[in-house]
Specification:
This protein is of the alpha/beta class. The chain is 28% helix and 25% strand. The protein is built from 16 helices and 28 strands. Strands 5-4-3-9-21 form a five-stranded parallel β-sheet. A five-stranded parallel β-sheet has the order 11-18-12-13-14, covered by helices on one side. Strand 13, helix 9 and strand 14 form a beta-alpha-beta unit. The longest helix is centred in the C-terminal third of the chain and has 16 residues.
């Protein structure tokens, strides 16, 4: 009887099946949702009004993850992603490896194809953008790919607008000098698949490449260009590479690896101008110590000097921005405007050790925030931890680097002068072939020995070791506790006493020497 009745309903039955509401027991506000077998249930139009409408602005890892967790929380919600690009969710972190060819096709980076979203009953508008949002009337005005504009009502909205590349004041970088806009031909940033395609098109064996910026992205792009056969030069404003990630002494090991691979890096140089007629062909930079000007010729120029969160829409809505100029969110990822959530690169959230607001610029953090926002936007109650450690890793030029927690400079700015334990060790026992050198640096609180941060550099087995420090910091362990850690051992995997515990032992010994009894 039931199957026969549904067949008579025609196209409406598909909508009810997809929404999962042809069953008794689905109730909202004390009333049963539309059920053709119960004359007292809510009608189809009223059901459409009662179903929660969630709009997600941005379809990257933050937006895509938020959509999936909103769906897990509310099986009947109407969820729509608005994405400016023409590709659904893909891994931006994988772009350098697509440039190099380690990943054969850039489209292999797509993580959530449209078909998968459809199976989860998540709508997506590609090539579309949200022009404005009325937070009182709860209406998002969406400009579609064909230029038409539609009004999209919502009950909750998630801003996953991400970030754009930050381009410094380098004369000649833009097509129209003095105005931000399209970059001059031959000049690139790396944020999108199309950016990566453009870099690939000019990067080939024997070509000259200049990378401005020696942060994580800059070094990964430099390695990719080297793999493609380019002669690569890096220009860095600071005194060393990756100083936002690790201390100078640890960064020096990466600098040595860069030089070993034949890539030239000029530190404490400021790029001032990009020259060329139809296409950019050189970068002019000044030595910040001597003032000497130097010209670096190039067939391809990549600017990798950081990013800035896309906050224009959040500001239009009325969301508060904080010390980092990103959107302020609470532990539910909700902004100061009710039912408006924000995640990822456009937000700030406290760093757990210093308590200072920090721009959330890592994919791992974007995903954690997206889970929380997705659940809460759909009516759940999920919370972020009190702060993040900004755990990060990279491994260009055969050098693995991983770190968690603030650097020494960041701790000292917060008024903490940490005790430091730095040791050199090996990944395997002395007698076992294939062992690699590894350096571990631990930063601890001088009064109680609580572990505040850790940095590890080596050729192998670095990243999982940093995760042990993450667990230790989040659980409040001291160097005394960690030095007694029972670690796994077998000759082809790890030594009997791991270097991570030895580093903590070094700090513990310092603390013991500082005790009054030790000084007496």
């Amino acid at each position: 009887m039931r199957k026969w009745f549904i067949s008579l309903l025609g196209p409406f039955s598909t909508q009810w099946r997809l929404s999962g509401i042809i069953s008794s027991g689905h109730r909202q506000k004390g009333r049963e949702l539309f059920n053709p077998f119960n004359p007292h249930s809510v009608g189809c139009k009223e059901w459409a009004r009662l179903a929660k409408r969630i709009v997600i602005v941005g379809g990257g890892c933050g937006g895509g993850t938020a959509a999936q967790f909103a769906r897990k929380t509310d099986r009947n919600a109407e969820i729509t992603i608005i994405e400016r690009e023409t590709y659904p969710q893909y891994s931006r972190c994988g772009l350098p490896y697509g440039i190099s060819g380690v990943i054969p096709e850039l489209t292999n980076l797509i993580e959530a194809p449209e078909e998968r979203l459809r199976r989860s009953r998540i709508g997506i508008l590609l090539g579309a953008d949200v022009a404005r949002v009325d937070p009182v009337g709860k209406i998002a005005n969406v400009v579609k790919a064909d230029g038409s504009e539609v009004e999209m009502p919502y009950d909750s909205i998630i801003l996953a607008t991400g970030a754009s590349a930050s381009v410094p004041a380098v004369k000649g970088a833009f097509l129209e000098d003095g105005r931000e806009g399209p970059l001059r031909p031959g000049v690139f940033v790396l944020r999108t698949i199309e950016d990566a395609r453009g870099i690939q098109s000019l990067a080939s064996k024997g070509k000259r490449a200049v990378v401005i910026g020696a942060g994580l992205v800059g070094l990964e792009v430099a390695e990719a260009l080297m793999i493609r056969g380019c002669k690569v030069t890096i220009i860095e404003y600071l005194s060393n590479c990756i100083l936002a990630m690790v201390d100078d002494d640890m960064a020096q090991m990466m600098a040595s690896a860069i030089a070993r691979d034949g890539v030239k890096m000029f530190t404490e140089y400021q790029a001032t101008e990009i020259l060329g007629e139809e296409r950019a062909n050189c970068v002019v930079a000044n030595d910040r110590k001597t003032g000497e000007e130097r010209t670096f010729y190039a067939d391809v120029i990549v600017i990798a000097t950081g990013q800035r969160g896309e906050t224009a829409l959040a500001k239009q809505i009325g969301c508060e921005t904080g010390q980092t100029k990103q959107v302020v969110v609470d532990d539910r990822c909700e902004t100061r405007i009710k039912d408006v959530y924000a995640v990822g690169d456009c937000t700030e959230y406290p760093e757990i050790i210093t308590g200072k607001p920090t721009a959330s610029g890592l994919g791992t953090i974007a995903v954690k925030m997206a889970i929380v926002a997705g659940v809460n936007a759909a009516g759940g109650d999920e919370r972020l931890p009190k702060g993040f450690l900004q755990t990060r890793a990279t491994e260009p030029f055969g050098c693995q680097v991983a770190a968690t927690g603030p650097t020494t400079v960041q701790l000292e700015k917060a008024g903490i002068k940490p005790l430091v334990g730095k040791v050199r060790g090996f990944t395997l026992p002395d007698y076992f072939p294939g062992r690699k050198e590894i350096f571990v640096k631990v930063l601890a609180h001088p009064e109680n020995g609580r572990i505040l941060a850790a940095q590890i550099v080596g050729e192998s087995r670095v990243h999982m070791r940093i995760n042990a420090f993450v667990a230790a910091i989040q659980s409040g362990m001291t160097v005394h506790d960690f030095s007694k850690l029972e670690t796994a051992y077998c000759p082809p995997a790890a030594p009997t006493i791991d270097v991570i515990t030895i580093a903590c032992e070094a700090v513990r010994l310092k603390m013991d020497r500082m005790k009054p009894s030790a000084r007496a």
